[in-house]
Amino acid sequence: MHTILKLNGVSAGYGGTEIIRNVSLEVHRGEVVTIVGANGAGKTTTLRTICGIVRPTGGTIEFEGDRIDGLRSDQIVTAGVTMVPEGRQLFPYISVRDNLLMGAYKKTARATWHQRMDEVLEIFPRVRERLDQFAGSLSGGEQQMVAIARGLMSNPDLLMFDEPSLGLSPLLVSQVFAVIDQIVDMGTTVLIVEQNIVHTLRIADRGYVLENGEITMTGTGQELLDNPHIKKAYLGI
Ligand code: ATP
């Protein structure tokens, strides 16, 4: 078991307000790990802290054994960690191709972007058909696929997803999760934050429950699905 990401007692927030407290978690190579929790629990803040957008006020973050807390976001991407942000955050008035290119800004990725784009588009045939369109002209589901494809362009070791199913119809949600499965099969490790708990826990090897900024529970995806507290608090059963 090889630990790729390790958070040890991480606290972080905005302007003096602490949002996450003493968060410790591990992701092993090849795993799908999820952080589940209610609205406002601090899931997005946790991902933003890992990728250097929010500075931790306490604790340490290690990637492949090296401290990454304190690095800039671009240095963290170069180290091998990329995030597919909530709400996709594409550039609407440039082409899909150029949006994908933005994901390949790290030097090594830039040299081989042509080949990488070909590999990535294997997973997204519909995106390939739309490379010359403005990204903003695509449907919500197609935009989510572009956002995921952009995340893959840097060839990350760890790809983090923030609410990838948000705002999508049930069919598209299934497609997004099928794509995540393919990405895992390709050897990428995945950390996924979701409110769609059932779907996520089904594909996750392990999960952490985040409540009011603190980890309150951890277990395999199935253990958490079977847990009475989870059933009551998150599934209404
Ligand atoms: P959701 O599922 O609704 O996205 P979440 O678990 O991802 O929720 P966060 O987005 O991490 O939660 O937000 C946690 C808290 O941090 C919320 O109370 C939110 O209002 C606050 N917050 C988020 N971003 C900022 C910001 N840029 N400045 C100040 N407070 C923020």
Question: If you had to describe this structure to a student in words, what would you say it looks like?
Answer:
This protein is of the alpha/beta class. 38% of the residues lie in helices and 28% in strands. The protein has a single domain (3-234), classed as P-loop containing nucleotide triphosphate hydrolases (Rossmann fold, 3-Layer(aba) Sandwich), CATH 3.40.50. The model has no long low-confidence stretch (mean pLDDT 91). The structure holds adenosine-5'-triphosphate (ATP). Adenosine-5'-triphosphate (ATP) is lined by residues 14, 19, 37, 39-45, 195.
Could you list some keywords that capture this structure?
237 residues; alpha/beta; Rossmann fold; four-stranded antiparallel β-sheet; 11 helices; 38% helix; binds adenosine-5'-triphosphate
Please specify the SSE layout and strand pairing.
Blueprint: E1 3-14, E2 17-28, E3 32-36, H1 43-50, E4 56-63, E5 66-67, H2 73-79, E6 81-84, H3 96-102, H4 107-111, H5 113-123, H6 125-128, H7 140-152, E7 158-162, H8 170-185, E8 189-194, H9 197-203, E9 206-211, E10 214-220, H10 221-226, H11 228-234
Parallel strand pairs: 3-8, 3-9, 6-7, 7-8
Antiparallel strand pairs: 1-2, 1-4, 4-5, 9-10
Adenosine-5'-triphosphate binds next to helix 1.
End-to-end Cα distance: 35 Å
Q: Please state the average pLDDT score.
A: 91
Count every beta strand, where a strand is a DSSP E run of 2 or more residues. 10
- Helical percent range? 25-40%
Q: CATH homologous superfamily?
A: P-loop containing nucleotide triphosphate hydrolases
State the secondary-structure class: alpha/beta
Small-molecule binders: adenosine-5'-triphosphate
* CATH architectural label: 3-Layer(aba) Sandwich
CATH class: Alpha Beta
Q: Count of DSSP helices?
A: 11
Rg over alpha carbons: 17 Å
Order of helices and strands: EEEHEEHEHHHHHEHEHEEHH
Which outline best applies? globular
Task: Give the strand line-up of the largest sheet.
Answer: 6-7-8-3-9-10
